[in-house]
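sorry for the late reply, my laptop died twice this morning and i had to redo everyting from scratch. anyway the thing you sent over, i finally got around to it. pasting the sequence first so we're on the same page, its 289 residues, then the predicted structure underneath. double check i copied it right bc i was rushing
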Amino acid sequence: MVVQHNTLIESSYKMTLTEQRLIRICVTQIRRDNSKNARKHVISVYDYNRTFGLSDTRKELEKASRELIKRYVESNVQHEKMGKRWNKSIISIVESVSFNNDSIMIQFTESIMPLFEDLRGNHTTYELKDIVRLNSVYAVRFFEIFKQYQTIGERVITVNQMRVMFGLEKKYKAHKDFKKRVIDTAVDEINLHSPIRVSYEQFKKGRIIHAYSFKIERKATKLQISRNKSARQTEKMKDTITKALDQKKRILIDGEVVLEINGPVISLENGNSVLLHAVITNGSTFTID
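ok and here's the structure:
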């Protein structure tokens, strides 16, 4: 389970996809271990490869871990400290990394830990498996933003907010490039490979696209789809029986009578499953279990 403070989700930072994945794996261990060593986390290369369906990532993981030492998050959340009010914080994420032939140990800084532990209800939760097939660094960030607002069902973000959050103030300056490589790539991946579905509308200020309104909904599970299909089939059967009762007719399937209007109790079978458990007729009244 990945659990993060919403301040971290809204913060500005840049990371590669591999760096983000390493951090998320460590965060799942924080909630699972619940120990005093929550700052230190060991990730085996084998487990990383198995989780994300990869192979031969040892050098890539070592490179990403080295880069994490340089990474920081920038937050504009106001807070009180040492008798003063501050409106911006820059927090280093990783204090140290260690390597051997098959594992990497990452130690978080003390300053970043409250964004993983001191949540007080202001947090977002999802399963690590929800993002394992997302291959765009922006898809992972957008997914977390959308999960934060999933119960509300909508999130409005200005283009400038997105640029700041993703560290893209100087990249993809033409909006068509920003939309194609950041927004559309992320939304397509999320819709294809995650448990949520997203659509959006664009809003302009004058001739410039100023903001996006993202509509967020959870995809139906296979069980829900199956139940909905079964419910539709049952309703269709009810309609058929009602019409038959009204018209004083018999219902036939494959040439066999399965319902007599004046019959006492009838079972309708389809293969090994009973779609209509019982029909009790009394005039135009019947009951279906």
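Confidence is low (pLDDT under 50) at residues 248-254, 260-289.
thats about all i looked at so far, will dig more tmrw
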